[in-house]
Write a structure and sequence with these properties.
The chain is of the alpha+beta class and about 350 residues long. The protein is built from six helices and 13 strands. The strands form three sheets. Strands 3, 9, 10, 11, 12 and 13 form a six-stranded antiparallel sheet that branches.
């Protein structure tokens, strides 16, 4: 019996020990799991906190940097604006100094050396007058040199130049001899008068060119001062051959297209002067052959007088070319052609 009780007691103790071990093991496992869970949760929370903290710090830093940049920009702009202001003040001050010294120089008549003599003594012309030593207006004498005459009367030569094809000998008519106005052929006078017509007086179509006789006659009278030498008849203008219809009092020509030939008449004014009521224009004239680059005189159309020249070399070779004198007489304060003389 005693032995059975001992066995029972022993078994009970062993069971209790086993239970304790099992509980301990379970407890340890549970604690391990709890510990792992706590570690994981803490780690995750820590990482999340770190990320949130990093983001918050980054935003804060960005805001701080932006604010610093704004403050720096304001400081730079204030400094730049002040620099510009200082520059403008310096420029204005220098300009004021220059004006002041300029006025001082003007006040002491420093710039008088730049004035002309008439400006110094107050005798410069105004409206054709000058002021004499007594402060009175006096008529100023005009210096009538070559340039003055060309400016005021150079148009006279242009009005009496013939408009003819220089490839034809007929274009050299006025340059071949001496002529009084009364001796010049009427066809050449009509040529000059035609040049004075207004565009609206020349009626043109694809077939012909028409000019009323009355219009050409009025242009003739305006150019020569009278119609004493006006005669109706045929005349040539450039390449246009006009005929006269007496019944209609009209000049007509076939509408041809005119082209320039190889020859051209060149003429330049050497001098101009007045003698009483007569105005004289002295010129040099030549025939210029473009293909040969040569000058010919009106006395010899077969041998060049000057070679290897251009249209602009007339003045340099004037001594070897023909010379002419145009004479214009004054009537009613207007000059009209009176004669042409071949001087050389």
């Amino acid at each position: 019996m005693a032995k059975k009780e001992d066995i029972k007691t022993t078994t009970k103790k062993e069971n209790q020990e086993i239970k304790k071990d099992v509980v301990k093991e379970i407890k340890e496992k549970v604690l391990q799991e709890v510990y792992k869970e706590i570690q994981t949760t803490i780690k995750d929370d820590t990482l999340k906190y770190k990320e949130d903290l990093k983001e918050e710090i980054s935003i804060e830093i960005q805001n701080e940097v932006a604010e610093m940049v704004k403050q720096e920009e304001k400081r730079i702009l204030r400094g730049k604006g002040f620099s510009i202001f200082k520059r403008d003040v310096v420029i204005f001050a220098l300009f004021a100094i220059v004006l002041y010294f300029g006025y001082c120089l003007y006040d002491v008549k420093y710039f008088d050396f730049m004035k002309s003599e008439c400006e110094k003594n107050g005798t410069c012309a105004t409206s054709g007058e000058y002021v004499d030593g007594n402060g009175e207006n006096k008529p100023q004498e005009i210096v009538k040199d070559k340039e003055w005459y060309i400016d005021n009367y150079g148009y006279l030569l242009d009005e009496v130049k013939l408009s003819l094809n220089a490839d034809h000998v007929s274009a050299y008519y006025l340059y071949s001899n001496d002529y009084k106005l009364s001796e010049i052929k009427s066809s050449y006078l009509l040529n000059m008068a035609y040049s004075q017509l207004e565009t609206k007086q020349i009626k043109t179509n694809s077939q012909q060119i028409v000019v009323e006789g009355s219009d050409l006659k009025n242009a003739f009278e305006k150019l020569f001062g009278s119609t004493n030498y006006y005669k109706e008849g045929a005349f040539t203008y450039n390449c246009l051959n006009f005929t006269y219809n007496k019944d209609k009092d009209r000049y007509t020509a076939e509408n041809n297209k005119c082209t320039k030939g190889k020859n051209e008449i060149l003429e330049e004014i050497d001098n101009m002067y007045e003698d009483g009521d007569v105005l004289y224009i002295l010129t040099t004239a030549t025939i210029y052959n473009k293909e040969e680059s040569s000058y010919y005189t009106f006395d010899n159309l077969f041998e060049a007088a000057v070679v290897d020249v251009t249209e602009n070399d007339l003045e340099k070779n004037a001594k070897r070319l023909n010379k002419y004198q145009y004479q214009f007489k004054k009537a009613n304060d207007t000059y009209y052609l009176d004669a042409i003389t071949k001087l050389k």
